Amino acid sequence: xxxxxxxxxxxxxxxxxxxxxxxxxxxxxxxxxxxxxxxxxxxxxxxxxxxxxxxxxxxxxxxxxxxxxxxxxxxxxxxxxxxxxxxxxxxxxxxxxxxxxxxxxxxxxxxxxxxxxxxxxxxxxxxxxxxxxxxxxxxxxxxxxxxxxxxxx
Length: 153
Prior knowledge:
The protein is α+β, with helices and mostly antiparallel strands.
């Protein structure tokens, strides 16, 4: 993050506890994706799971490249939740982070393609691709809850 935002101590403690609970209760899609991201499997990058970031808890985060990967369930398809996700993504991007979103169906039906999409983005960033779009451009702007599980062209 560009500047360390002052989150009240009690909120930080709550978020740490909530992240710990979320690590114990990961969805099947999150567990599957985590099995491909953990232990530096993706190009030697270290991802953290259920990582507090400001007032939020990100599903997966790689601090080295400032990338957050979110796995959204069906609840994210409601208009209210889509707006919350938009605000959350805007906050994260506004703090210099990149956000990729997949929905549960995408991960469960083709986790290898989801991992490959992350790998492609990492490769582009290493070669200067996404940096050229600006420091806070999101690599995956599509709203994933409406996805059919098939990759978009």
